[in-house]
Amino acid sequence: MSKIGVHAAHCCKWHGCKYGDEDCPVVLGKVEQEWPCEYCSDDIEDMEYHREALARAEEIKTWWAAKKKEGKT
């Protein structure tokens, strides 16, 4: 393994070494990655989408429960 800075810039603790190195310093926790990798960024976007969808589902659930309570269903 060489060029630790390259690993810090491109590899991910969770998604692995971009270069397939088994001794990647980021994966082994010897060096901190500099920013989220492309897969982390996708995961963050997915989480935000699902968080918004769950919030909307909770609004619908509350609305539906109120309608049922009023006897309108």
Q: How are the SSEs ordered, and which strands pair?
A:
Layout: H1 4-10, H2 38-70
Could you explain how this protein is built, in words?
- 55% of the residues lie in helices and 0% in strands.
- The termini are far apart.
- It has 73 residues and is mainly α.
- It contains 2 helices and no strands.
What is the ordering of alpha helices and beta strands? Answer: HH
Q: What's the quaternary structure here? A: single chain
- Share of β-strand residues: under 5%
Helicity, in percent?
40-55%
Average predicted local confidence, pLDDT: 89
Regions with little confidence, pLDDT below 50 for 5+ residues: none
Morphology: rod-shaped
Total of DSSP H or I helical runs spanning 4+ residues? 2
List how many beta strands DSSP finds.
Answer: 0
Q: Gyration radius, to the nearest Å? A: 22 Å
Largest sheet entry = none
Distance between the termini: 66 Å
Structural class determined from secondary elements: mainly alpha
Task: Give a short synopsis of this structure.
The chain is mainly alpha-helical and 73 residues long.
